[in-house]
Structure formats: structure tokens, C-alpha cells
Amino acid sequence: MGKAQWQRRWRRWTGLTGQERRLLGEAACTLALARGAVLTLPFRTIAARLGTTPITSATHLASAQVVPAQQIGWAVRTVARYTPWDSNCLAQAIAAKTMLRLRRIPSTLYLGVAKKVTDPAQLEAHAWVTYGDQVLTGAPGHERFTIIATYGDPSSQRRTD
Questions:
Q1: DSSP state of 138
Q2: For a designed S-S bond to 151, which of 50, 79, 101, 113 qualifies (C-beta 3.0 to 4.6 A apart)?
Q3: Average pLDDT over residues 16-20
Q4: Which domain does 115 fall in, by range?
């Protein structure tokens, strides 16, 4: 990375508010924990903490929660680009879901599968998190995945059977 790139990043960092910096720090820690969980724990253990299935959170949003939810999505996506480990879609989704839950903001984590574009004989998986009808993490290309599981918050249930 060149000097000019470091200078741009430094200017961006110094232009952030204290709240934005704290949110990025929280996202980094949560992403690290999520990635560690994905690598070391069986998925059934992780799934038990994600929420209730087959529930999606309500599409009606409390206006006071929209901005914090969007900020969490921004923080997780931003930090994921710079982590020295692979912050894949599942780690990002788990981190965002965790951060939203800590703030009592209802969200839904989706797991989906699709045939690989390069080799239709193989499947690929994807995870994304929504708040209402807004995709907070994992948005690029999520539409092409068939949803196989949803994990919503029991307090704002909507069955998807």
C-alpha cells in the first residue's frame, strides 16, 4: 500500500465521529468472534443462537431503529474489507445479527443456496441479514439464492412456512 493510500485512509479515519469509530471497533471484534465461531463450532450450535426458524422479522420498522440498523450494516461491511482473516458472508451476517440483537433491533438472517455460475453441477451458499426490507449485509447477488433457512427474532415474528 502506497503513501497516498495511507494518507487517504487516515483522512477518512480522522473525519469519522467518535460514535462511528466505536461502531467500527465493535464490528471488528464481533466479526472476529463470528469468524472464530464459524471455524470452531458446529453449525447447529451457532444456529441455536441466531434466532427462531422459520421466522422472519416484521417488515414494519420503527423509525428510531432505521439509522442504527443502517450504521451497523455499514460498519460490518466496511470492517470486513480490511480484516486479515476471511470475513465471508456468514461471518458478516452473524456479526450484524449479533450487533442488532444487542440493540434490540429485529432482523432476519437468511441462508441460501444456488448453482454455481461457473459450474452448474456444484452448489454455493450465501448468507445475508435484513432489517425490514433492507439488506444490511450480503446484498450483492442475494436474489439468485434459494432461501433454505431464516432466523428471525421471536419478539417480531412473522412465520414463513
A1: S
A2: 50
A3: 91
A4: 3-159
